Amino acid sequence: MPIIQFLSPARDSAKVSAHSRKVLLDIMKISGIAQITITSTARTAHDQARIMFENIERHGVAHQKKLYGTYGDKVIDEFLTLKHNGKSRADIITGLTEKINSLGPRNVSRHAGNPNKLNVVDIAPSSINLAVRKKFESAVSNDSRVSNFLMPPKDPAYHLEIPQP
Fold first, then answer.
1. How far apart, in whole angstroms, are the C-alpha atoms of residue 96 and residue 45?
2. Among residues 36, 118, 134, 162, which one has the fewest Cβ atoms lying within 10 Å of its Cβ?
3. Residues 56, 140: contact at Cβ < 8 Å?
4. What is the mean pLDDT of residues 13-28?
5. If 0-12 CB within 10 Å is exposed, 13-18 middle and 19+ buried, where does residue 137 land?
6. What is the pLDDT of residues 55-113, one digit of tens each?
7. Pairwise CA distance, residues 46 & 2, whole Å
8. Could you tell me the residue ranges of all domains in the chain?
9. Which of 112, 110, 114, 88 is nearest to 101 (CA)?
């Protein structure tokens, strides 16, 4: 039986529905994958702000602007303004949280939407053996229960969006 691991089990495992787990297990069986690691699921606006802050600091503005659309870019611009004004890490994250809430969290990232309507999971590519990655990518792409699928290099993780019944 395939195993779904969570990078943060206490925080994330309850956010992935039975329906989404079934979709993932079916994909794993088709692909011949024994185990995956989910690195991210539903996020609050504050979590999204913290993650965006950390990723901008780690990877830079240009890299992050490639990941997000118009609304995410507005959050990144807010980061630049706050950073330029000498704000602290905590103040910047608070400012980004306010910006995300004003724009609508789901507009910034699907991770910040309503998990009762849409489960969003990121899977670590490193948790999938290179020999079966193409099978996995094909299985996800061909599963009609997955409404959106992003993969490296567009997204650093395998990003799956699964509408809830």
1. 9
2. 134
3. no
4. 96
5. middle
6. 999 999 999 998 899 999 999 999 999 999 999 999 999 999 999 999 999 999 999 98
7. 33
8. 3-42+115-163, 45-110
9. 112
